[in-house]
Automatic annotation (TrEMBL):
Native organism: Plasmodium falciparum FCH/4
Region described as Disordered: 1-53
One of the record's GO cellular component terms: membrane
GO MF annotation terms: protein-cysteine S-palmitoyltransferase activity
The protein's name: Palmitoyltransferase
Enzyme Commission code: 2.3.1.225
Main location: membrane
Localization per Swiss-Prot or TrEMBL: Membrane
Membrane topology classification: Multi-pass membrane protein
């Protein structure tokens, strides 16, 4: 009997322990379920906010317009006060204005350095080619160069060189001066829903759409973008048929100046090849005569 009682007590203890384990596991499961539900609710809220930002519903557009009108007055007042404060500060501290102007001028000067470098290189090549190659061929009594007198060759080479150089300079200057082309300021290309957007953050106004099939638009210019147009951060505008921003011309290569840029490259390559071919003999003779002079000087020193 005692054995049976002990067995029954053990069974009861086992059942109690199992029930406790089951209850603990159920409690853990319930806590996990609660955490999962909270995560799902947070995800749903985030999705709703994203849908509000990136949806194309007209009601949402109207809501953004209403918010824009409500905040416009506050923004105007704050802008007026901030502008007045800045004017007072600049009037009291004229050094601030000078520092800003100096920074802008420095940036412009740094960006124009490649253009100045190209003009300096062209001037050096021009002087070397004319003084040490063309003039010795034209003038008989020209000194310091080891070339034979050849009037026809000198005139022809000088004419071809000047023609190619002038054509290169014309196209290079036009590629700098001519604007690459931008999106026209007409109603066809402007975003009609966001025309009054001067004093509001762009992120709150623009409704970005992904895989919607609608026309592309620029966030910074607030205009629809035609094919192959891109926004240049240096020029701060959308460029039609943009190829790249070239620092050597201080301009973007686009729809209007692409022809001049390509012609400048072609004429530059032609002039460099022409100069290297025609000046080969003069350079070779100069090197040979230089070696002869060195040998003569050595013989004189030895004697």
């Amino acid at each position: 009997m005692t054995k049976n009682k002990n067995v029954e007590e053990k069974k009861k203890n086992m059942t109690d322990e199992e029930s406790n384990v089951i209850s603990m596991s159920e409690g853990k499961d319930s806590n996990d379920d609660k955490k999962k539900k909270k995560k799902k609710n947070k995800q749903k809220k985030g999705r709703k906010e994203e849908n509000i930002k990136y949806s194309s519903d007209k009601s949402i557009i109207n809501v953004t317009k209403g918010m824009k009108d409500n905040f416009k007055e506050d923004d105007d007042s704050t802008l007026d006060t901030s502008n007045n404060v800045m004017l007072e500060r600049t009037n009291n501290h004229p050094k601030v204005e000078r520092s800003f102007r100096l920074q802008n001028n420095k940036n412009k000067f740094v960006r124009l350095l490649p253009v100045f470098f190209i003009f300096i290189v062209l001037l050096g090549i021009y002087l070397i080619y004319i003084m040490y190659h063309c003039l010795p061929l034209i003038y008989k009594d020209y000194k310091k160069v080891y070339l034979k007198y050849d009037l026809k060759r000198g005139i022809i080479e000088m004419g071809v060189f000047h023609f190619c150089l002038i054509m290169y300079l014309i196209n290079y200057i036009l590629s700098i001066i001519v604007s690459p082309g931008s999106i026209p300021d007409t109603e066809e290309w402007s975003l009609n829903d966001f025309q009054e957007n001067n004093n509001i953050n762009m992120e709150n106004i623009l409704l970005e759409k992904k895989k919607s099939g609608e026309r592309r638009h620029c966030k910074w210019c607030c205009k629809y973008k035609p094919d192959r147009t891109h926004h240049c951060r240096v020029c701060k505008s959308c460029i039609l048929k943009m190829d790249h921003h070239c620092p050597w011309i201080y301009n973007c290569v686009g729809y209007n100046n692409h022809k001049y840029f390509m012609l400048s490259l072609i004429y530059c390559s032609i002039t460099t090849v022409f100069v290297s071919i025609t000046m080969f003999t003069s350079v070779r003779n100069a090197i040979k005569n230089g070696e002869v002079r060195k040998n003569k000087i050595r013989k004189i020193k030895i004697n």
